[in-house]
Amino acid sequence: MSQKKSRSRGGGGAAAAGDDHEDLARPPPLQAVLLADSFTLKFRPITLERPKVLLPLVHMPMIEYTLTWLESAGVDEAFVFCCAHSNQVKEYLEKSGWAGRAGAGSMAVTAVESHDAISAGDALRVIFERGMIHGDFVLISGDTISNMSLKDALREHLDRKKKDPLAVMTMIIKHSKPSVLTHQTRLGTDEIVMAIDPETKELLYYEDRADNSNLYVTIDKDILSNNPTLQLHNDMEDCYIDICSPEVLSLFTDNFDYQHLRRHFVKGLLVDDIMGYKIYTHELRSGYAARIDNFRSYDTVSKDIIQRWTYPMVPDVISNRNCSESRLHRQGIYKASDVTLSHSAQIGANSVVGSATSIGDHCRILNSVIGEGCTIGKNVVINGSYVWDNVVIEDGCQVSNSLVSDGVHLRAGAIVEPGCVLSFNVEVGKNALVPAHSKVSLLPQPSNEDSDEELEYADTNSGVTDSPPFSSMRSNGDQATVPSEEDESGTSETGTCGVVGYIWTSGDAGILEEWRQSIAPISKEKLEELQHAVSENDGSEDESNNPTLPDKDDSSDSAVEDDDLISKFEKEVEETFQRAMGGGVNRDNLILEINGLRLAYSLQHADCAGAVFYSVMKSALQAAQSTNDTLLKTTAEALGKWKDLLRNYTKTVDEEMEILLKFEEMCQETTKEFSPLFSKILPFLYDTEVISEDAILRWAEEKEHADESDKVFVKQSEAFIQWLKEAEEEDDEEE
Amino acid sequence: MPDVQPLVSDFVLKLKRRKVEGSHAVARQTAELLRSVVSQHRMGSSANQAAALADAVRAVGEQLIAANPIELAVGNVVRRVLHIIKEEDISSTAVGIEGLSVTVDSDDEYDREDDDRPSLSAAVLAAHARNALRAPSLQTLLEDIPVSPAISRTASSTGDSDGKSKSAGDKTSTRKLKHDVIAAIGDLIDEIDSCYEPISEQAVELIHQNEVILTLGRSRTVKEFLYAAKEKKRSFRVFVAEGAPRYQGHVLAKELVEKGVQTTVITDSAVFAMISRVNMVIVGAHAVMANGGVIAPVGMNMVALAAQRHAVPFVVVAGSHKLCPLYPHNPEVLLNELKSPSDLLDFGEFSDCMNFSTQDGSPLLNVVNPTFDYVPPKLVSLFVTDTGGHSPSYMYRLIAEYYSADDLVVRRKSSA
Asked: Locations of Polar residues compositional bias (chain A) (predicted)?
């Protein structure tokens, strides 16, 4: 009797307590879609073997943070969309106990698998087809770390939707200042320009690929005329947490060309005023949210976690279910209880050392995260690096600002320079030097870069991931031979033995991206360079703003003014061109419009040719996925498509020359991505008859007398020019 | 106890995620959870029922304490429950041998009475049961003198009673043990809930007419204490230090003004400047340690030092669930928690100071946001608990009445 009574009392008490803290639980359960695939290649080569969401971030897989946050934010049901490496994700969900956990108060996690999806848009279309979402849902990617309370944002969203059913999405944004020098956020992404209505918080304009070479933002006139007030922000960070209405899914299905959540969906919705869908923003005031997009943000977010901005998601509070507790010591040092630490070893501030790791004499660990089961020898210096589990680092190694994956073996005296990424089970030989910003993997770099998905490698890799025999075999037999096959320039300066594994060439958009998005801090020289560039920019801006108050002599002033005019003209042509690309404006009309613009700016026909060419190349660059091969391909496509248009402006040799000069200028200044491709694109221009051989030869001739720096591209395309000359001579002879 | 496991893991998760915070809420929910653990526990036919039950509680308690070691109230309640089991075991053994005697009457009391006397008398019982180890306390001297003969008989007989109780350990006695334990835990919950009343009853004795009281942050116990004094028509003024970085003092100021108390809000840093005008400092605590030291919201040590400098009495009000039998060996590291720096700084405003890409990779800006301070016992003038006022040097004895010495480390014995 009394037992029963007390049981019911106990149960009632627990339920009451539950109600107090779960006030988000409402009749329509809150659902969440978690994309366990980033649909980018930023974390290659590591993501060839393990999906990004399972990469450890301060000892815990990223997805664990996301799921934990979703659960604590009151989400009742979460769908994990897995694509590449779906088996690994599903296995993790089961092993960690997220999947198949039903019951009051806990979040149900269901894995959704699809191998066809190659973008976030595809994923949402799959979700829609399966009909799993019934109400408003949270859209999040599996690499988002947050501790924010969703309550306010959710209430705002629902209230707004009641009043206006067209308010389909609420984006969470956070105040964060981008760097003045690099024009990127602290997470290594480009700064975003947003226009927001200060009253309603409606998002009016979104541009995440702000061109930082010219400091312009172009906003449609309609936006300005329709909204009496608007705030322009470049100090907001997109958290990539969205509260969406179910309509969002059907919008993705209706517009099957929507791939990217921001670049296509958000921009598409903002431009499209027929349907009138609206996107709103919610600014995060207290709380933390950030998405790990690249290695730079991996570094930044790790440091934020160590500095406890993500509390309670910090290493000493939530720990992985199977590993032992780590404790916070002074100066932000987190240490597991069973670390073997030499007395003479020194662990600096803001470091994390995982369980069962041993650290030898006179080691210095600074600002680093060391995983579990690592063995670190004597006199090792690890600075600002992320060392994952079961890594062996022998005596005297130096690792700075790099990422060292599971099972890597650094033999004695190896040096890993800043910005390196060593993928799984890579071995670095004795006294070898891994040059800065190199990416090393046991898997070869895929040659066909045009496919975006990591998907197709999923099957081949599942076998490789955990096969120690493979690596050990290689280390015994191939150690001497393999390095010689590798990138010669990379290993030429290494010591006696090189690196077991393939050093990936940094094809991805050249040197530029490398310092932007690596773990290593930007080097001092680079910073000075940027500082210099900024001060120069400021100077020129001042001049152009105050043309009436020239502080230089008149001739340069007029030149500046002239340049300014041309750049404005180019800008307009580019926009016109882009509109034509998007809306499919008739080519004749386009020519008409451009001609109109030319008259308005009273410029030469030649300027027009340059501007149009610039726009075409620009469009190719935007369509390309930042690798040289694809860039070449898209450029070829764009040129093929618009050759008629270009030909319309290249009636004389002068105009063709203008195009060549413009192209050269672009390669040197604005769009350096093209510079390695100059010699490859030039023949193509010739083939499509945009530029005649006369123009090319004259250009080469003119350049002969120029200084060395100007001749870079002539030299690059020397072979082609030579060929042209010979062909001409042959023609002459025949005649 | 398969049925309670979901409840336990749910609560563990809540503690881990810091969804349940504050010693009162934590203590209450722990007690409720342990009550359902006890009620779901299947009493086997093993020889020692009480030990099995204690083991079950210990197993759960261990998980709970590990989930959030900073919430000392969890451990306190677990130890209290273990102590209750021990007491009930002794008393039921006593019943088994002595027949229906005084202790049975007190069992009936459990069902009827709501005040804390039964559990106290139970404490007395246990104290007497092990009286060889312990000197008589003030509590036992004042109360329950008629009980003691029965107890002393019990105590003398427990030594050889084990064998007999096993043979007499029929189903009724085991069920009775469980029933008694559940009832006692129910009393413990009531005690936790109503701990403010006996404390605030003492308010009029401590707060005199036209006095100036200083407090820091917001403590519910302090609030009730001041309310009670106000209700008794005392007129006094309160200085509230706002209690950065959470500024709970602002909330308290609002609440006090609603009750018509003269209130002045000051910054934490103004405490020293104002302390010379203050007659008494009354503050709450997160936990009271066995040495009489106090774990309290951050900034408290400064207030205590200021009070000592100007010889102002420093009074700590705390319910008995905050009494912790542990000693603070390493308070800076072990018994503190660093919260998110976002309480202190606006992330967006300082984001450019944390741009690691342009700062050579090492964070130059560090923000530390500790939650608690440790106030050493020599700075505390008086503790006001639900059993009355005590000096810091007496705390260890008070604590000894609530907990048994062998429960200080909550760990499953089965593993040993």
From this structure: 459-482
CB B261 within 8 A of CB B236: yes
Say yes or no to pLDDT of A478 above 50.
no
Cβ pair B357:A307 closer than 8 A: no
Q: What is the pLDDT of residue A379?
A: 93
Q: What is the pLDDT of residue B191?
A: 92
CATH T-level fold of A325-441:
UDP N-Acetylglucosamine Acyltransferase; domain 1 (2.160.10)
pLDDT tens, A167-197? 899 999 999 888 877 777 888 888 888 899 9
Cross-chain CB nearest to B356 (options A105, A300, A330):
A300
Judge whether A463 and A484 are in contact, CB under 8 Å: no
Q: Which is nearest to B43 in space by CA: B170, B167, B165?
A: B170
- Per-position DSSP letters for B111-172, written without gaps between them: HH--SSHHHHHHHHHHHHHTTTTSPPPHHHHHS-TTHHHHHHHHHHHHHHHHHHHHHH--HH
> Residue A583: its pLDDT value, please?
64
Counting the structural domains of chain B, the total is 1
Let me know the angle formed at the C-alpha of B19 by B13 and B23, rounded to the nearest 5 degrees: 105
CA atoms in the 13 A half-sphere facing the CB of B186? 21
Phi, psi of A615 (to 5 degrees): -65, -40
Distance CA(A491)–CA(A498), nearest Å, equals 6
CATH code for residues A31-212+221-291: 3.90.550.10
Considering only the beta carbons, identify the residue of A7, A72, A179 that sits closest to B36. A7
The minimal CB distance from A318 to the residues B16, B179, B361 is found for B16
Q: Is A327 on the interface with B (CB under 8 A)?
A: yes
Tokens standing for A280?
Answer: 């709103």
**Domain containing B315 — which CATH number?**
3.40.50.10470
Contacts of A106 in chain B (CB under 8 A): 10, 13
* Residue B385 belongs to domain spanning: 195-402
Of B348, B351, B363, the CB nearest to A350: B363
Residues in B touching A184 (Cβ below 8 Å): 357
pLDDT at position B198: 93
**Residue B88 forms part of a structural domain:** no
Residue A7 has pLDDT above 60, yes or no: no
Instruction: For residue A31, give the nearest of A165, A151, A99, A133 by alpha carbon.
Output: A133
Structure tokens at B56: 């079950």
Q: Is residue B28 part of a domain?
A: no
B287-288: strand order across its sheet: B287-288, B294-297, B372-375
Look at A481-485, A710-714, B376-380 and tell me which has the smallest mean pLDDT.
Answer: A481-485
**Per-residue confidence band for A376, with pLDDT thresholds at 50, 70 and 90:** very high
Cβ of B17 within 8 Å of Cβ of A312? The answer is yes
Which chain B residues contact residue A334 at CB under 8 A? none
**Are B356 and A303 within 8 A, CB to CB?**
yes
Mark the ranges of chain B whose per-residue pLDDT is less than 50. Answer: 1, 99-120, 122-123, 126-127, 129-136, 140-169, 333, 414-416
CB-based contact, A350 to chain B, within 8 Å = yes
User: For domain A564-734, which architecture applies?
Assistant: Alpha Horseshoe (1.25)
- How many Å lie between the alpha carbon of B266 and the closest alpha carbon of chain A? 25
Nearest CA distance, A1 vs chain B (angstrom)? 10
Helix (H, G, I), strand (E, B), or coil: what is residue A604?
coil
Query: Which of A21, A68, A367 has its CB closest to that of B362?
Result: A367
Question: Cα separations (Å) of A608 from A604, A687, A697?
Answer: 7, 21, 22
* Average pLDDT, integer, range A131-151: 90
pTM of structure: 0.72
ipTM score above 0.90:
no
